[in-house]
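Re: the request from the purification team.
They wanted to know what the chain is likely to look like in 3D before they choose a buffer screen. I agreed to run a prediction and write the result into the notebook, where they can find it.
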Amino acid sequence: MPKRKWPAVMLTVLLFIALVAGFLHFAGLITPTSYPNMSSLNTGPHGAKLLFDALTSIHQLAVSRNYVPFSQWHPSSSTILLLDLRSSTLDLAPKEDLVELENLTHTNNRVVLCIADGSFIGKPDTKKPLLIKTRWGIQIFAKDKQSKDKDSEGTLDYDSSWKPVNGVDDAVEKRFGAAGSVVVALHSEDLSNQSLATDAAVLDEISPLIGYHTSVVFDETHLGIEQSGSIAALVLRYRLQGLIAGLLLLVGLFIWNQSVSFPPPPRFESSHDTQVLGADARAMFAGLIARHLTPQALLESCVAEWNRVKPRQRITAELPGKLNPVATYRQLQENLKTKRTRT
């Protein structure tokens, strides 16, 4: 392989390795265990795939997932499960988020908010209550009100508009409108794959949480799994900018390599280097004869060609072994002239 091609080959190999590494990284991002905790797509110990499959096996239930934002989603007569909600996220939720959850209840939906343990507010402030307390009449805080430990156990503080859910510990329900309702339940981890596989008593709490609806929807948008509808959003979500840049660079180098030599050939230093002496047709023919025909062979070739073209004026004289080409040529011409005059 020419030395000037080594840089291009090495660069192509490095880019190919980077491309393979990018695809492997992308494949690792979409493995089932890489989904967020309590996602119905996560098959690991902290996922909720086992709960999803268990409900799917019940023929009376229609189980599905939601990847669309609440503002674009309009379910009806369904139980919507939001698993692994942070208590701080619900306590500090802005008005817009609470309104979106309330709108879901207007079409006879049961919204179940399962709160994960940890990051509870230690003690509620009675002078400046949170929005969820003033709007919904409920608040989540640490059972030990003086504790600042984020892993402390939580408890619910709610008014009379909330009623405990029968058969479920630390779960309350409130009616919104004529038919819809919101359920707030602690200990979301009790519905994880590991908990369902090791503790059979947890199964008794599933039916009271779901309620009477035959349609159950696992919401994935609050966990960060959302259907964006654009390739650019997927690239940003899975951090594939480097992979795309490598592909574009590889395509650019391929086009460059096909259009010009890589690296470019050295330029001639002067115009004299481009001149080739003796390149006209006569000089090339003379050079070819000089390299391939001896004087004896040249005359023999001429005589043979003459006899082929002029069979009636054949030259029958034998050429001597050692001859003078010029003298022999002239003698042959005289012999031909003599034959022409006799005829």
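For the purification team: Residues 6-29 form the longest helix (24 residues).
Please add any questions underneath this entry.
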